[in-house]
Amino acid sequence: MFNVENIRKDFPILSRKVNGKPLVYFDNAATSQTPQQVIDVIVDYYSNYNANIHRGVHTLSQEATDKYEQARKKIQAHFNAKFAHEIIFTSGTTHGINLVANGFSSLLKKGDEIIVSALEHHSNIVPWQMLSERTGAILKVIPMNLDGELVMSEYDKLLSKNTKLVFVNHISNALGTINPIEYIIEKAHQVGAAVLVDGAQSCPHIKPDVQALDVDFYVVSAHKMCGPTGQGMLYGKESWLKKLPPYQGGGEMIAEVTFEKTTYAELPHKFEAGTPNICGGIAFGAAIDYMNAIGFDAIATYEHDLLEYATKKLLDIEGLKIYGTSKHKTSVISFNLESIHPYDVGTILDKLGIAARTGHHCAQPIMDYFKIPGTVRASFAFYNTKAEIDALVEGVKKAKTMLS
Length: 404
Ligand SMILES: *Cc1c(COP(=O)(O)O)cnc(C)c1O
Description:
Elements: H1 4-9, E1 17-18, E2 21-22, E3 24-25, H2 36-49, H3 59-79, E4 87-90, H4 93-103, E5 113-117, H5 126-135, E6 138-142, H6 152-158, E7 163-169, H7 181-190, E8 194-198, H8 210-213, E9 217-221, E10 232-236, H9 238-243, E11 254-257, E12 262-264, H10 278-294, H11 296-315, E13 320-323, E14 332-337, H12 342-351, E15 354-355, E16 357-359, H13 364-370, E17 375-379, H14 386-403
Parallel strand pairs: 3-15, 5-6, 5-7, 7-8, 8-9
Antiparallel strand pairs: 1-2, 4-10, 9-10, 11-12, 13-14, 14-17, 16-17
Helix pairs in contact: 2-10, 3-10, 4-5, 11-14, 12-14
């Protein structure tokens, strides 16, 4: 049974104080907190079997290699990839996107078209702009509406036989909107385009099935789902990963090297040059175990309840406006108090021990669309409580009184 008080005991950081007040951590969309079960795995790695992988015959190296490859299999099972070698370890979502964008440099030509959405994080915009500059491919944008939803009738119009790639996030980090990626993928495939889904914000809340989605590439960061920073994964369909050239050259990614010619290693190693974040990969596996033990259905139900509770309470504050009002959204609330700068609200909340994000949330085009400098963003995880939301609401009321 889902018991939030027991779950909170797993997270040492949740019992600390900030500015003399109990920490209320509502910046989960930026990074999640780490349970003791994952911290223990990190300590165990460095205490007992820290060694480089895939090369040594010695015991430590074999132990580390086994655990690292076991983690890859856990990740494969979690996202339901067909093969373990379709899981490429990366340093995070940004790395995964850049790996794919670089790979497409040699596959695109002038006049090809690539489609992005208006709801993207900068890391799912800039690498494609760079790709477009390198190749002459044209970048087109799926527009959004005032609820913060992508307009699918406009997407339909953008698609053509020239479309080669579509990249869109599963869930918006700035507004929480859940995008209709099933539809987006199906339509893109009808014109022969590949689809990359940025799953950085979906993986903390739902369990995506890459085969059911029939997605070509799916990228996530471990640190958004109770794992360590500097670690992530790229899922790619085997056929695509075979087609893409390697991203970086170095050790681990080769089959044979001479000065005349180098042949590349098989998947997944072709894309994993150099010594990886071994501990990070193993800890990512532990984070997935941790979240699955709680259960994604229980997490979704609980977080939805928090979202509804907080939305209602915040909207009771006069002059408070929420950005991102789709019916399909996760536990993210982006808001502003009439004419008060989000930074000032965030500063007052911090004095009260409440960690909320302020600013453009790496999604400036969304802020431009709403003609605002930024928002205050409270993003909830399964270890947050209604009592914490009450503290936020009181904090926002206090900020309003002090600043207006
Ligand atoms: C956090 C985030 C990213 C970037 O993830 P990194 O871990 O910083 O690479 C990309 N897209 C979305 C939607 C995000 O929320």
